Amino acid sequence: MSQLEIPYEYEGWWRIVETSQWDDSSLDMLGEAVLSITGYGDRLRMFTLLAYVNCKVIKSGISFNFKGAWEYDPVSGSGNVRLRKDGKLSGKIRIKGGDESTFIAERTNEPEDHIQHPPQLRDKWR
Predict the structure, then answer these.
(1) What are the sequence ranges of the domains in the chain?
(2) Complete DSSP assignment for 4-36
(3) Which residues touch 23 (CB under 8 Å, ≥6 apart)?
(4) What is the rounded CA–CA span in Å between residue 123 and residue 126?
(5) Pairwise CA distance, residues 88 & 30, whole Å
(6) Phi, psi of 85 (to 5 degrees)
(7) 3-state SS, residue 124
(8) What are the DSSP calls for 46-78, one per residue?
(9) What is the pLDDT along the chain (126 residues), one digit of tens a residue?
(10) C-alpha of 86 from chain center
């Protein structure tokens, strides 16, 4: 199996419903908090984070890194997920030079609302 061949049990869209370190009531500030895992053009949206995601298969599940923006500030980081017995994902996200948190995600459909591209710092002053 190549790194881009995501196992079917992981493939798709996941709704982030809980985090260990951040206020869950703010998860959906920009729309539903979601993570896509397909191996091609994946996205992450939660709080004010919008990011492009690169996934790869590891022994214990899926590992990913991301690059995007938290509000208008550039941000990057990494994370991993594993499938729980109840069908939910259990994961960890680490923001480079910042916070880290565990999270729980449930399978969902692709969001109907368009996920914006991560803004750039220069957009802040327009």
Answers:
(1) 12-112
(2) T---TTT-EEEEEEEESSS-GGGTTBTBS-EEE
(3) none
(4) 5
(5) 23
(6) -65, -25
(7) helix
(8) ETTEEEEEEEEEETTEEEEEEEEEETTEEEEEE
(9) 344 589 999 999 999 999 999 888 999 999 999 999 998 889 999 999 999 999 999 999 999 999 999 988 999 999 999 999 999 999 999 999 989 999 999 999 999 888 888 887 666 665
(10) 20
